[in-house]
Protein backbone atom coordinates (compact mmCIF):
# COMPACT_ATOMS: atom_id res chain seq x y z
CA UNK A 1 0.00 0.00 0.00
CA UNK A 2 2.76 2.56 0.79
CA UNK A 3 4.47 1.60 -2.49
CA UNK A 4 1.30 2.22 -4.47
CA UNK A 5 0.90 5.53 -2.60
CA UNK A 6 4.36 6.61 -3.77
CA UNK A 7 3.59 5.51 -7.32
CA UNK A 8 0.20 7.25 -7.49
CA UNK A 9 1.42 10.44 -5.86
CA UNK A 10 4.42 10.77 -8.12
CA UNK A 11 3.25 9.42 -11.47
CA UNK A 12 -0.47 10.29 -11.37
CA UNK A 13 -0.56 13.48 -9.28
CA UNK A 14 2.72 15.32 -9.88
CA UNK A 15 4.74 13.66 -12.66
CA UNK A 16 7.69 15.40 -14.27
CA UNK A 17 6.83 16.94 -17.63
CA UNK A 18 8.37 15.60 -20.83
CA UNK A 19 11.85 17.01 -21.21
CA UNK A 20 11.80 18.64 -17.79
CA UNK A 21 14.81 18.06 -15.52
CA UNK A 22 12.55 18.50 -12.50
CA UNK A 23 13.86 19.46 -9.10
CA UNK A 24 12.01 17.27 -6.62
CA UNK A 25 11.74 17.60 -2.85
CA UNK A 26 10.40 14.76 -0.66
CA UNK A 27 9.65 15.03 3.07
CA UNK A 28 9.73 12.05 5.46
CA UNK A 29 12.00 10.78 2.72
CA UNK A 30 13.26 7.63 4.42
CA UNK A 31 9.73 6.43 5.24
CA UNK A 32 7.94 3.69 3.37
CA UNK A 33 6.39 6.15 0.92
CA UNK A 34 9.14 8.77 0.67
CA UNK A 35 12.03 6.44 -0.08
CA UNK A 36 10.18 5.07 -3.12
CA UNK A 37 9.17 8.51 -4.35
CA UNK A 38 12.82 9.50 -4.35
CA UNK A 39 13.82 6.41 -6.30
CA UNK A 40 11.00 6.88 -8.84
CA UNK A 41 12.12 10.48 -9.33
CA UNK A 42 15.70 9.33 -9.96
CA UNK A 43 14.45 6.81 -12.56
CA UNK A 44 12.84 9.76 -14.30
CA UNK A 45 16.08 11.75 -14.36
CA UNK A 46 15.05 14.28 -11.73
CA UNK A 47 17.24 16.02 -9.18
CA UNK A 48 16.00 14.74 -5.81
CA UNK A 49 16.50 15.99 -2.26
CA UNK A 50 14.86 14.57 0.87
CA UNK A 51 14.34 15.73 4.44
CA UNK A 52 14.66 13.32 7.36
CA UNK A 53 15.01 13.39 11.14
CA UNK A 54 18.51 12.05 11.81
CA UNK A 55 22.06 12.07 10.44
CA UNK A 56 21.90 8.29 9.89
CA UNK A 57 18.88 8.75 7.65
CA UNK A 58 20.67 11.52 5.72
CA UNK A 59 23.48 9.05 4.98
CA UNK A 60 20.96 6.35 4.02
CA UNK A 61 19.31 8.61 1.45
CA UNK A 62 22.57 9.76 -0.08
CA UNK A 63 24.55 6.52 0.01
CA UNK A 64 21.97 3.75 -0.40
CA UNK A 65 18.86 5.23 -1.98
CA UNK A 66 20.44 7.45 -4.63
CA UNK A 67 19.13 10.83 -3.52
CA UNK A 68 21.21 13.78 -4.76
CA UNK A 69 20.97 15.49 -1.40
CA UNK A 70 19.38 15.20 2.03
CA UNK A 71 19.14 17.23 5.22
CA UNK A 72 18.07 16.70 8.81
CA UNK A 73 15.18 19.08 9.46
CA UNK A 74 15.81 18.86 13.20
CA UNK A 75 19.21 20.50 12.70
CA UNK A 76 17.91 23.31 10.49
CA UNK A 77 16.64 26.25 12.56
CA UNK A 78 15.63 28.09 9.35
CA UNK A 79 13.86 25.69 6.96
CA UNK A 80 13.47 28.38 4.31
CA UNK A 81 17.24 28.93 4.28
CA UNK A 82 17.87 25.17 4.15
CA UNK A 83 15.62 24.77 1.11
CA UNK A 84 17.28 27.74 -0.61
CA UNK A 85 20.62 26.04 -0.02
CA UNK A 86 19.48 22.77 -1.63
CA UNK A 87 17.27 24.35 -4.32
CA UNK A 88 18.88 27.63 -5.33
CA UNK A 89 16.70 27.61 -8.48
CA UNK A 90 13.55 26.46 -6.66
CA UNK A 91 11.45 23.30 -6.44
CA UNK A 92 9.36 21.96 -9.34
CA UNK A 93 7.72 19.06 -7.52
CA UNK A 94 7.11 18.66 -3.81
CA UNK A 95 5.90 15.32 -2.44
CA UNK A 96 4.24 16.28 0.85
CA UNK A 97 4.27 13.82 3.72
CA UNK A 98 4.56 16.04 6.81
CA UNK A 99 2.86 19.46 6.52
CA UNK A 100 3.27 22.21 9.12
CA UNK A 101 6.35 24.45 9.16
CA UNK A 102 8.06 22.53 6.38
CA UNK A 103 5.12 23.07 4.02
CA UNK A 104 5.19 26.79 4.82
CA UNK A 105 8.88 26.93 3.93
CA UNK A 106 8.38 24.87 0.76
CA UNK A 107 5.68 27.24 -0.52
CA UNK A 108 8.24 30.05 -0.48
CA UNK A 109 10.65 27.98 -2.56
CA UNK A 110 8.41 26.60 -5.31
CA UNK A 111 9.10 27.49 -8.92
CA UNK A 112 6.51 28.95 -11.27
CA UNK A 113 4.04 26.19 -12.31
CA UNK A 114 5.30 23.94 -9.50
CA UNK A 115 3.25 20.96 -8.35
CA UNK A 116 2.60 19.65 -4.84
CA UNK A 117 1.19 16.16 -4.25
CA UNK A 118 -0.25 15.96 -0.74
CA UNK A 119 0.16 12.40 0.45
CA UNK A 120 -0.07 13.12 4.17
CA UNK A 121 0.58 15.58 6.99
CA UNK A 122 2.47 13.51 9.55
CA UNK A 123 3.52 16.43 11.72
CA UNK A 124 -0.11 17.45 12.25
CA UNK A 125 -1.94 14.23 13.08
CA UNK A 126 -1.45 14.33 16.86
CA UNK A 127 -1.72 18.06 17.47
CA UNK A 128 -4.72 19.44 19.34
CA UNK A 129 -4.29 22.67 17.41
CA UNK A 130 -2.89 22.11 13.88
CA UNK A 131 -0.30 24.61 12.63
CA UNK A 132 -1.60 27.43 10.49
CA UNK A 133 -0.11 27.86 7.00
CA UNK A 134 0.99 31.43 6.30
CA UNK A 135 2.34 31.27 2.76
CA UNK A 136 -0.67 30.14 0.75
CA UNK A 137 -0.41 33.33 -1.29
CA UNK A 138 2.50 31.70 -3.13
CA UNK A 139 0.00 29.32 -4.75
CA UNK A 140 -1.24 32.32 -6.70
CA UNK A 141 1.17 35.29 -6.74
CA UNK A 142 3.10 34.71 -8.92
CA UNK A 143 3.97 31.02 -8.87
CA UNK A 144 0.75 29.43 -10.23
CA UNK A 145 1.25 26.29 -8.13
CA UNK A 146 -1.05 23.27 -8.25
CA UNK A 147 -1.51 21.47 -4.92
CA UNK A 148 -3.54 18.26 -4.90
CA UNK A 149 -4.36 15.68 -2.27
CA UNK A 150 -5.09 12.05 -3.10
CA UNK A 151 -6.12 8.79 -1.42
CA UNK A 152 -4.42 5.63 -2.59
CA UNK A 153 -7.59 3.52 -2.40
CA UNK A 154 -9.06 5.48 -5.30
CA UNK A 155 -6.31 4.05 -7.52
CA UNK A 156 -6.60 0.28 -6.91
CA UNK A 157 -7.24 -0.20 -10.62
CA UNK A 158 -3.66 0.78 -11.48
CA UNK A 159 -2.12 -1.76 -9.09
CA UNK A 160 -1.09 -4.05 -12.01
CA UNK A 161 0.59 -1.09 -13.73
CA UNK A 162 2.47 -0.32 -10.51
CA UNK A 163 3.64 -3.94 -10.17
CA UNK A 164 4.66 -3.96 -13.81
CA UNK A 165 7.03 -1.12 -13.11
CA UNK A 166 8.47 -2.04 -9.71
CA UNK A 167 8.80 -5.84 -9.85
CA UNK A 168 11.65 -5.86 -12.38
CA UNK A 169 13.58 -3.48 -10.12
CA UNK A 170 13.18 -5.72 -7.06
N1 LIG B 1 -2.73 9.57 0.72
C1 LIG B 1 -2.71 8.25 0.95
O1 LIG B 1 -3.50 7.49 0.42
C2 LIG B 1 -1.66 7.72 1.89
C3 LIG B 1 -1.42 6.35 2.02
C4 LIG B 1 -0.40 5.92 2.88
C5 LIG B 1 0.34 6.86 3.60
N2 LIG B 1 0.04 8.18 3.45
C6 LIG B 1 0.80 9.21 4.14
O2 LIG B 1 2.11 9.22 3.64
C7 LIG B 1 2.97 9.77 4.64
C8 LIG B 1 4.19 8.87 4.80
O3 LIG B 1 3.75 7.61 5.24
P1 LIG B 1 4.83 6.43 5.48
O4 LIG B 1 4.08 5.16 5.49
O5 LIG B 1 5.97 6.63 4.54
O6 LIG B 1 5.33 6.75 6.93
P2 LIG B 1 6.43 5.94 7.77
O7 LIG B 1 7.14 4.92 6.96
O8 LIG B 1 5.75 5.52 9.02
O9 LIG B 1 7.49 7.07 8.06
C9 LIG B 1 7.14 8.07 8.91
C10 LIG B 1 8.33 8.98 9.12
O10 LIG B 1 7.85 10.30 9.14
C11 LIG B 1 8.70 11.08 9.92
N3 LIG B 1 7.94 11.89 10.90
C12 LIG B 1 7.22 11.44 11.95
N4 LIG B 1 6.72 12.50 12.62
C13 LIG B 1 7.12 13.60 11.99
C14 LIG B 1 6.94 14.98 12.22
N5 LIG B 1 6.22 15.43 13.27
N6 LIG B 1 7.49 15.87 11.36
C15 LIG B 1 8.22 15.42 10.30
N7 LIG B 1 8.43 14.11 10.04
C16 LIG B 1 7.89 13.22 10.88
C17 LIG B 1 9.60 10.13 10.68
O11 LIG B 1 10.86 10.16 10.01
P3 LIG B 1 12.01 11.19 10.43
O12 LIG B 1 12.74 10.58 11.58
O13 LIG B 1 12.83 11.23 9.20
O14 LIG B 1 11.35 12.48 10.79
C18 LIG B 1 8.96 8.78 10.46
O15 LIG B 1 9.89 7.72 10.46
C19 LIG B 1 2.13 9.94 5.89
O16 LIG B 1 1.73 11.28 5.97
C20 LIG B 1 0.94 9.04 5.65
O17 LIG B 1 -0.21 9.47 6.33
C21 LIG B 1 -0.92 8.61 2.61
Strand order of the largest sheet: 3-2-1-4-5-6
Poorly predicted spans: none
| Shape call | globular
The biggest beta sheet is recorded as: 6 strands, parallel
Number of domains: 1
- Helix amount, in percent? 25-40%
Ligands in the model, by name, code or SMILES, are: NADP nicotinamide-adenine-dinucleotide phosphate
Cα-based radius of gyration, to the nearest Å:
15 Å
Report on the structure:
Pfam families: ADH_zinc_N. This is Alcohol dehydrogenase-like C-terminal domain-containing protein. InterPro entries: ADH-like_C, MDR_fam, NAD(P)-bd_dom_sf. Residues 32-156 form the Alcohol dehydrogenase-like C-terminal domain. The chain has 170 residues and is α/β, with parallel strands linked by helices. The protein has a single domain, classed as 3-Layer(aba) Sandwich (Rossmann fold). The chain has helices spanning 2-13, 32-43, 55-63, 79-86, 100-108, 159-169, and strands at residues 23-26, 47-52, 69-72, 91-96, 110-118, 146-149. A six-stranded parallel sheet has the order 3-2-1-4-5-6, with helices on both faces. Strand 1 (23-26), helix 2 (32-43) and strand 2 form a beta-alpha-beta unit. Helix 1 (2-13) crosses helix 2. The longest helix is centred in the N-terminal third of the chain and has 12 residues, at 2-13. The protein is globular. The protein binds NADP nicotinamide-adenine-dinucleotide phosphate.
